[in-house]
UniProtKB/TrEMBL annotation:
<dbReference type="GO" id="GO:0033557">
    <property type="term" value="C:Slx1-Slx4 complex"/>
</dbReference>
<keyword id="KW-0540">Nuclease</keyword>
<dbReference type="GO" id="GO:0004519">
    <property type="term" value="F:endonuclease activity"/>
</dbReference>
<dbReference type="Pfam" id="PF09494">
    <property type="entry name" value="Slx4"/>
</dbReference>
<comment type="similarity">
    <text>Belongs to the SLX4 family.</text>
</comment>
<dbReference type="InterPro" id="IPR018574">
    <property type="entry name" value="Structure-sp_endonuc_su_Slx4"/>
</dbReference>
<dbReference type="GO" id="GO:0006281">
    <property type="term" value="P:DNA repair"/>
</dbReference>
<keyword id="KW-0234">DNA repair</keyword>
<keyword id="KW-0378">Hydrolase</keyword>
<dbReference type="GO" id="GO:0006260">
    <property type="term" value="P:DNA replication"/>
</dbReference>
<dbReference type="GO" id="GO:0006310">
    <property type="term" value="P:DNA recombination"/>
</dbReference>
<keyword id="KW-0539">Nucleus</keyword>
<keyword id="KW-0255">Endonuclease</keyword>
<protein>
    <recommendedName>
        <fullName>Structure-specific endonuclease subunit SLX4</fullName>
    </recommendedName>
</protein>
<keyword id="KW-0227">DNA damage</keyword>
<keyword id="KW-0233">DNA recombination</keyword>
Length: 117
């Protein structure tokens, strides 16, 4: 398939053409994402209905506060599942988006803390 670009040049696209997506995770992010998934899904279920686990919150479509989930992961949950490192809130946000998990930052656009979710 040959396409023309706005500059007048031709672009040849075939099965050998490498197309990279901006949203595709890197190899390092993919490893981290699989460990985050394992940490969230293998954590014990809660016995208190008022305080659901992270996995239960996600299944109920409760919005996840990125800073809180990141802190929980870095407090030993990633180590528990075999990941040697820490996650950044930005990486956790990308993981949430890749899993269609509703997430938000604790602060709003003006830099103030949210009053309600």
């Amino acid at each position: 398939m040959i396409l023309t670009s706005p500059g007048g040049g031709a672009v040849d696209i075939n099965e050998d053409t490498e197309i990279s997506l901006h949203l595709s995770p890197t190899a390092q992010q993919s490893a981290l994402f699989s460990h985050i998934t394992r940490a969230v899904t293998s954590a014990p279920r809660t016995t208190d209905p008022e305080n659901p686990s992270w996995h239960e919150k996600m299944l109920m479509y409760d919005p996840v506060i990125l800073e809180d989930l990141t802190a929980w992961l870095n407090e030993g949950q990633l180590t528990r599942v075999g990941y040697d490192g820490e996650a950044s809130p930005t990486d956790v946000k990308k993981w949430c988006e890749s899993k269609s998990v509703c997430c938000l930052w604790r602060g709003n656009r003006r830099g103030k803390e949210r009053k309600r979710l």
